[in-house]
Input
Amino acid sequence: SFTAAFQEHLRRLGLRDFPCGLGSWNKSRFDAHTSSRRGQAGLGTEPAGQEEAMPVGEESPEALVELLSHQHSPWAPPPGCSPQDQHLREMAVLTPELICGSNIFQVLRSLRIVGKGVEEVDEGLLQLQQLEELVLSANHIGRITSANLPRTLKVLELCCNAVADLQDLCVEPPLELQHLGLGHNRLCGPLRDKFLTAASWPNLVSLDLSFNNLTDLLGLVSQLSSLQKLRVLVLQGNPLALIPTYRGFLVDSLPKLAILDDINVEPDERHKFRSLARQPELIRSEARVVVSVGEIKGVPDPSAQQQLEVGTEAPVITYSYCVTYEF
Output
């Protein structure tokens, strides 16, 4: 579950262990006399009394922070550590009381849990009440319920999962969401029930549906046309992208689109494809593939005529082959 992966993520960051957290290495900075006053210090602020000589056995805040960042330090950032993760670790040195216990749920605004085998996004995610960016790429998520997503979310990245149905995700999702990434999933065929409309995603600016199995271009455009703030769209890798008029039809159908499949939509291109959206009959839901085999080695040539002597009773041998292509 997400909760289990999140707890393991925090454990790997070592927010309660040296040089982070509270311990003998910084005891005098957080004693009972000054904890309330020091609790106001944020990341990058020098705690009161820092300029004084450190007691024997303790380390200065600068030395502790350096241990977290130096590449040759045993406490260097673990593999895959994001800037937000490193920010948390430094906070755990300078103001550990701000991220101890449940306080950490009020601090996190960006979270990346990538390739950790997450299958379920449970209600534990709702504890992150200030979360704005969530990246859950390369996991095993098949379904995701919008009821378990924080209302503050602006970026949701679910690339390389197993999402095949958008129904649960599109029931009252976070209204402030600006980017939705669903590339390399298992979405297929026509998307039913108008899942990708402004009714569910009124502030969506960027949408990634690449490398799925979407085939209904007309149906998809009818939904996306209601997304008035949509500026970036990625659909490459879907069967519908094989349609000859694919790019032109999208450019003309979505006049506010600025980037399609990582390519800027230029004014001259928009002029070139003007009025194409009014001709849906040009869109064919089929493709023709011609394959030519130049040479096959290692098998007899079936086209070679066997020269049989007149009057011979030898049997005639014929050869035939089947070549199969999978698309």
The CA atoms of residues 106 and 134 lie 15 Å apart.
